[in-house]
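Changelog-adjacent note: as of this version, every example in the card shows the full chain rather than a window. The one below runs 288 residues end to end.
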Amino acid sequence: MDKSYAFLIQKCRQKLNVLTADAKKTTNEQSVQTEDDALLKLSNQLLNDLQKHGTDPKEQTPEESIRRQIILSSHVKKLSKENFELKDRLGKMNLKFSSILDKLRIYKTENDANKTNLLDNLTALNLDQNNAKKQLNEQINKYYAHFETEQQKSLDKIKVKEAKLTKLKAEKEEINFQLQNVLNAFQVQSRLLEVARKEAFNAREESKETEQKLQDKLYLTTNQRCANCEVKQKVQNNLTDQIADLKNKIVMKEQELEERGRINVIFAEKVKKTKKNLIKKNYWQKKN
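Full-length structure tokens:
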């Protein structure tokens, strides 16, 4: 009989484990099953097991039946209590699981919002980056265009200055050539003036001497007794004409000397002006 009880208890524990496993898979409506329903279900299962093992309760005495029922009832209550404790723990775990699911849903919602926010920010950042890149390219192109324009202006200015410099060099060479010619002419005129002065001086001295001789002859002729008045008159006239010619030559020499002096002054002014222009050209050439 003890082996039969042990076997029945083992079978009850197996059934309880099966019920516990089934309870984890049931919904909330199945988890609120009453204690009486569980006891009734366990009793029916125990009777079926006893019948399968050839133990019919009708063949037992009342005392044995009562004793067995008490023992079975005690085990059933114990197992039922354990079952309900497991169900309570399972309910609490379900609540925790539901709370975790709610938190996960909230986290998912927040994560989706953050993800959407992040994607929006990333899109805005890409847009700003593209705009900034576009503006930078525009500024670079504008800078290069301005640089090329200014560079071309500078090159044009350099070309103009080079043309001016070339022109100034040509003018300088021309002025140097003219200055050299003027200096040469001035030197020639200076030498001619010096020669004219010497000739004028010599002419004066010679004219003085000649005039003195002629005056002496004229005096002698005038004071000479008139042997032949007509011849005397001719000699006087001739001497007077010679003296007049000599004076005219002296006047012409003086005029020639004066003209050469005037020409020399003109050449000196021209040399001065040419030097001034040359200095001015050199100044502008150095400045540019």
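Structural remarks: The radius of gyration is 76 Å.
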